[in-house]
């Protein structure tokens, strides 16, 4: 296994956010909410997106997709691409995160097929978990950019407060803990649909921006 520990501290959240914003600015046609990550990859970057039956099983359930070492293709588990839209979108952005943040590592990898890639990728993920975490961070900041999230947060927060009070009139105290929790759940759901991401991904982004606890 190649030694990539020297790259461990290369990307903190601030630097990843900068690269994410830079990436979005480079693709203005498709960076509106919700970001059309599929078009950016397929049209702008000319990278083939290839649904592959059983890919997740091939990689022992450890990955949902695989970026080829030459950056020409992204292989995605077919079930995820067909049945799990938000996960599919996050997965695509995650794989692009590897290309943007770690091109030098992929250039060091030596594989020319999915079979030979399996052992390398699995060992890479096991030995250097930051490799995947940083790609996740990039993905979240691409699909839910800091600027756009801050822009719409207040609007949807007020809307969520109003909807909760309409749906459950007994929440008549703004400081009621159950009321605040209901508003948070409603807000996360609404924003997740707006950005076309999972509630889990939206929760992480809101916490990262310190908009919710």
Unreliably modeled segments: none
CATH topology of the largest domain: Arc Repressor Mutant, subunit A
Q: Can you give the helix content as a percent range?
A: 55-70%
State the end-to-end CA separation: 39 Å
| Major sheet description | 3 strands, mixed
Strand order of the largest sheet: 1-3-2
What is the strand and helix layout of this fold?
Elements lengths: L12 H13 L11 H8 L3 E5 L2 H4 L6 E3 L5 E5 H6 L1 H17 L1 H6 L5 H14 L2 H14 L2 H22 L9 H19 L3 H10 L5
Parallel strand pairs: 1-3
Antiparallel strand pairs: 2-3
Helix pairs in contact: 1-8, 5-8, 9-10, 10-11
Record keyword descriptors for this entry:
three-stranded mixed β-sheet; Arc Repressor Mutant, subunit A; mainly alpha; 3 strands; 213 residues
Task: Explain what you see.
It is a single chain. With about 210 residues, the protein is mainly alpha-helical. It has 2 domains: about 5-145, Orthogonal Bundle (Arc Repressor Mutant, subunit A), CATH 1.10.10.2910; about 145-210, no CATH class. It has helices at about 15-25, 35-45, 55-60, 80-85, 85-100, 105-110, 115-125, 130-145, 145-165, 175-195, 200-210, and strands at about 50, 65, 75. A hairpin with a 5-residue loop joins β2 (about 65) and β3. α5 packs across α8 (about 130-145). The longest helix has 22 residues, at about 145-165. The model has no long low-confidence stretch (mean pLDDT about 85).
